[in-house]
What does this fold into?
Amino acid sequence: MNERIRQSSFLVTGGAGFIGSHISATLLESGAKHVRVLDNLSTGYRDNIKELLPSAGFEFIEGDIRDPETCRKACSDMDFVLHNAALGSVSRSITDPGSTHQVNADGFFNMLDAARLSGIKRFVYASSSSVYGDDPSMPKKEERTGNPLSPYAVTKVMNEAYANVFSRVYGMPTVGLRYFNVFGPYQNIHGPYAAVIPIFITKMLSGVRPEIFGDGKNTRDFTFVKNVVQANIKAVLSEKTGNGGFVFNVACGETIALLDLYAEIARLMDFPHSPDFKPERAGDIRNSWADISHAAEYLGYRPEMTWKEGIRITVDWYRSQLSKQ
It folds into this structure.
């Protein structure tokens, strides 16, 4: 595996963000010839890659995927693209659908077309479990999707459709990874669109009761970031995906209720208080649980870490960050 990585150059879009910075670090640790990060630092942070900046073979471009020329320059001389640049958050997309579309749909197309024109060997991109929408079947299988429930979900459906067409029309190898509720160190805790796990942890650290929207019985397939990095690397290396426009679920394959998540974090942090329950939010999926057999068969993907192991590591990381302040 490492031999192919050592011989290759990688563009990681959104590489100063939460997931992208983990991917970039792993590629460098694996001996990649060249890792180039493209990020406009709107939701990513230079601090996430500060330890990578002095590394031989690492390059940072501050730029925006909404600009086609920036995308073309970023793809120049690269072998693989790992596209993770996006505006996340269902609630953000409902509040500001225009920005979500510009980045996640227009920006995605710009990167995809730039990769095509540059002769990229494979375009691996972040999709989302949100594409399953209102489909009630469980566990979630790649071939069954419902109606999207938010503008964010619509952009991810568009991404998959474009990638599939580019594979069929241009013979361009693409692999989409449907991330399920990724968490871990470096996840953003700031602003109104922070994810549930860093919110729970940071509020408990501050002695504040975290909010749960709804009854807390809604479920998610929480996925530690190390598993997502593994899936990206395996998507680059897999010989089974060929030129097809494949999409794969990337998750732990477990279903966890928010109340159980809350209880586990509270246990680790000796937090004695119950959640502050609030009304359900528009656009939220009720239940989510991934069938990961497709990724296992085609990518050789196996979760390296359970959600509970990941939660322990994540709690320790946020505690260490607080102690530095």
